[in-house]
Amino acid sequence: DKIKEIYIGTTMEVRLEGNNFEIKKLNNPIQLILKGKETQWNWDVIPLKSGNQLLSLIVSIVITLPDDIKEKKDYYLFDNPVKVKPNLIYSAQTFIGNYWPHFIAMLVGLFAKEIFNKIKNIKKVKRLYIKKP
After folding, report:
1. Residue 14 predicted with pLDDT over 90
2. Is there a contact between 59 and 12 (Cβ–Cβ < 8 Å)?
3. Nearest alpha-carbon partner for 13 in 25, 28, 34
4. DSSP codes, 29-70
5. Which tens digits make up the pLDDT trace of 48-98?
6. Are 57 and 77 in contact (CB under 8 A)?
7. Which tens digit of pLDDT belongs to each residue from 16-36?
8. What percent of the chain has pLDDT over 70?
9. pLDDT tens digit sequence for 31-45
10. Cβ atoms of residues 2 and 35 within 8 Å
11. Under 8 Å between Cβ of 33 and 62
12. Cα torsion at 103, 109, 112, 116 (round to 10°)?
């Protein structure tokens, strides 16, 4: 089911797509196919959402027409279902990384409130000692 026959040209493009993934191309998606040489397409894939997700592999033959016009014929090789399990450490790091200014502001606010309350309580204690019956 994972093996499909497609036409091969001298220039091919391969794309990996998925809505809930951050996909970074590690090499050029359009490559020459040379006889007797291996050709690879590589990606770094980071899931953005847990649960059942879908990755699609699209292969295209790139044909150069007169006047250097490029046309593509797409073949959808497969839609691959992927079950993504949550990674709590990565999720926490990403959340804090995205919202660290808010965390700092919250901590400064809590710290300032605590200091203000302590100063207020010290003044109350001093007033108790200063009052004469």
Report:
1. yes
2. yes
3. 28
4. SEEE--TT------EEEEESS-EEEEEEEEEEEEEEEGGGEE
5. 888 999 999 999 999 888 888 888 888 777 888 889 988 788 778 888 888
6. yes
7. 999 999 999 999 999 999 999
8. 90
9. 999 999 999 999 999
10. no
11. no
12. -150
For residues 86 and 95, is the Cβ–Cβ distance under 8 A?
A: no
> pTM higher than 0.90 for the full model?
no
Rounded Cα gap, residues 20 and 95, in angstroms:
16
77 is written with which tokens?
Answer: 């090789």
Side chain identity at 67, as an amino acid letter? Answer: D
The amino acid at 121? N
Using DSSP's 3-state secondary structure scheme, residue 15 falls into strand
With tokens 């359009």, the residue in question is 30
- The Cα–Cα gap between 53 and 82 comes to 5
